[in-house]
Amino acid sequence: MSTQSPPDLEPEALDLRSGIPEAPSHQRRHTLPASEFRCLTPEDAASVFEIEREAFISVLGICPLYLDEVKYFLTLCPELSLGWFQEGRLVAFIIGSLWDQERLTQESLTLHRPGGHTVHLHVLAVHHACQRQGKGSTLMWRYLHHLGSQPAVHRAVLMCEDRLVPFYQRFGFSLMGPCAITLGSLTFMELQCSTQGNGSLRRNSGC
């Protein structure tokens, strides 16, 4: 399931210089980059789930991915994820996996199919303190650009609530119709987007 909940915590500055001799005063002090985009790793799983739990459970009562599932995807296909870090703290992320069928099924929620050419976007989430700042949009443009640089990936698919369809259509996603997957009383729409040619995507990406 994918939903959009874009947002930014006030991160404390982290000091990586422990045990390193002081540099001469005329040299610039080494600090973490103010803003960084990178693929996630299993070590990021706890931070991912904390943001996800805040964004989804409090609103919908469910999570797109629970902690074990986050670790599973970040172990098998970290290259299909993207995290936005500010001063070393995760503020937004997307997690995807490969799928090998035209439409999503219940199995697609928990499986990675290495032979597939479709990326299933499981979740887009933004820290609650950073929402309504455009971070979700910026991250999505960068993620599609990232997928466009991977020749084996032909398209991206996702499922979302009706109210979020216009948000994803802004990025080139087209409506496929109702999704076959339901979660309790929740129903979803399924959308798809070609990733071919997105390797040079810059418009509205904030890149």
Brief sketch in words of this structure:
The protein contains four helices and seven strands, in the order E-H-H-E-E-E-H-E-H-E-E. It has a single domain (35-194), classed as 3-Layer(aba) Sandwich (Aminopeptidase), CATH 3.40.630.30. The longest helix is centred in the first third of the chain and has 16 residues, at 45-60.
Helicity level: 10-25%
Q: How does CATH name the architecture?
A: 3-Layer(aba) Sandwich
Number of helices: 4
Widest beta sheet: strand line-up: 1-2-3-4-5-7-6
Radius of gyration: 18 Å
- Say how many strands there are: 7
Shape descriptor reads globular
How far is the first residue's CA from the last residue's CA? 26 Å
Q: What is the fold-level CATH name, i.e. the topology?
A: Aminopeptidase
GO cellular component, one term: cytoplasm
EC number: 2.3.1.87
GO molecular function: aralkylamine N-acetyltransferase activity
InterPro entries: Acyl_CoA_acyltransferase (IPR016181), GNAT_dom (IPR000182), SNAT-like (IPR051635)
